[in-house]
Write a structure and sequence with these properties.
The complex is a heterodimer of chains A (131) and B (116). Chain A is an alpha/beta fold and 131 residues long. Chain A contains 5 helices and 5 strands, in the order βαβαβαβαβα. In chain A, helix 4 links the parallel strand 4 and strand 5. Classes of the chains: A alpha/beta (131), B mainly alpha (116).
């Protein structure tokens, strides 16, 4: 079973982004490319070659689903598993995000201590299903 | 001290720094939220409503992750109320707006009930 290494993380909210990056890097041991907008992610993703997309849903200009749509059009991220992060926890919101192909949906606020494991487990499950 | 212990200490310090900074910034963030609400009392502007919603959304999403579960929960309720106003596309009645203002005014009190 390969291990997850590179995560593209897109979130416009600085305080939550800083804590997520810290725990993903230091607890999870991941390489994280952190972007504050969908456009920034599109500009930088080619060189990074992520193995997982971690996208905030509610962002100005280009939200998480719109960012995913644009990333799916790029060969480098066409088939990369995606996890959404959202403040909405209504069942219908979660279902609609899963319908976009999300392997998991993490609701905010999240527990920083368990975020890396949650991300890794969801990714491993998705990779196993693909095989 | 071995390298792993040093690394763990550095991580804990950095985490605490982020939490401290968040705590320091909270009163200012809440004051800015209330200033936006007050400006709407004076003049209704949908752009300001959207900014206010974004600010409250941010607080709702981050509060719990920094140990402010009650603050985050209260902010989430306000966010839902604001979203309903935005979706309705009509200026809320005085009673709805007064309730929302009260809830916003209560946010500073939730800072002191940090779970961390």
């Amino acid at each position: 079973m390969p291990d997850l290494k590179r995560i593209l993380y897109v979130d416009d909210e600085p305080s939550i982004s800083q804590i997520a990056i810290l725990v993903l890097q230091k607890i999870g041991g991941f390489d994280v490319l952190a972007c504050t907008s969908g456009q920034e992610a599109l500009d930088q993703v080619d060189a990074f070659q992520p193995e997982l997309l971690l996208l905030d849903v509610m962002m100005p200009e280009m939200d998480g689903p719109a960012t995913l749509e644009r990333l799916r059009a790029l060969p480098v991220t066409a088939n990369v598993p995606v996890i959404f992060m959202t403040g909405r926890s209504r069942p219908e919101d979660l279902v609609s995000l899963k319908a976009l192909g999300a392997i998991d949906v993490i609701t905010k606020p999240f527990d920083p201590a368990t975020l890396p494991d949650q991300v890794r487990l969801a990714w491993q499950k998705a990779i196993r299903r693909k095989r | 001290m071995n390298k792993n212990m040093q690394s763990n200490n550095d991580f804990q310090l950095r985490l605490q720094e982020l939490r401290d900074r968040y705590t320091e910034d909270l009163p200012e963030k809440i004051a800015a939220i209330n200033a936006h609400r007050k400006s709407l009392d004076e003049q209704w502007d949908w752009n300001v409503v959207n900014v206010l919603h974004q600010m409250v959304h941010s607080l709702a999403g981050s509060g719990g992750s920094f140990g402010y579960a009650q603050l985050g929960g209260q902010a989430r309720e306000i966010e839902i109320e604001l979203k309903a106003i935005i979706n309705a596309k009509s200026r809320p009645g005085a009673d709805v707006w007064a309730k929302l203002a009260t809830n916003l005014n209560n946010l500073p009190g939730a800072i002191s009930t940090s779970s961390s």
